[in-house]
Amino acid sequence: MALLAKGCALGAPPALPVARHASKPGKAFPEAHGRGVSTAHAAASTVLAAGIVGKRRMARKTAVRAAPPLNGRVTVDEGIRSDFPALQQEVKPGVPLIYLDNAATSQKPKQVLEELNRFYSQDNSNVHRGMHTLSMRSTEAFETARQKVAKFVNAPDSHEIVFTRNATEAINLVARTWGAANIQKGDEIVLTVMEHHANLVPWQLLAESTGAVLRFGQLRKDGTL
């Protein structure tokens, strides 16, 4: 979450690690002046990465089988969970898979997987790039989806809906277009201390290029803002 504001009085930004990830493969972001990666942050990142790799290796060795509903009854949450094939696994006997890494990659419900399979089996073609049957069907489906999203978010016009590949690309698009055109020296960009790296780097770069100031909302002891 990023909030762009003028004259917002928040505390000074905490020390943050340098953003080194690239928006494109092989192209690194420049270092933020006067900042460095803390030993603690680097160690924590290493431990986290090692844990993720270890869990993935363990998952490969674990047989995939449906986790039984709790107490033999299906709740609303379990009903929704049942839509996701990847979540119908047990990491070990009696322990269902609990997936919390949706900020990086979300699991796909069976309805989406089925539609993707149908599309690639029947309609696979470039959108807006041909007059043949498959391209026209793909274009119609694409624009229909745009109209449905516009209606769902109450957008005045479907042309205001822009599809991107993921949230990271969308955030960079906003920062490098709207942000570059509107943010000025002295403006404040408000983030939280719990931001994913993808929602920190674009604003760091924008602040450095425009002279804007980054401010960070703190967390309460219970983890809320």
From TrEMBL:
Keywords, alphabetical: Pyridoxal phosphate
Domain of life: Eukaryota
The keyword Ion transport belongs to this UniProt entry's keyword annotation: no
SUPFAM superfamilies: PLP-dependent transferases
Span of domain Aminotransferase class V: 98-224
InterPro entries reported in the protein's UniProt record: Aminotrans_V_dom, PyrdxlP-dep_Trfase, PyrdxlP-dep_Trfase_major, PyrdxlP-dep_Trfase_small
Keyword set includes Cytoplasm: no
Protein name: Csd protein
Organism: Symbiodinium natans
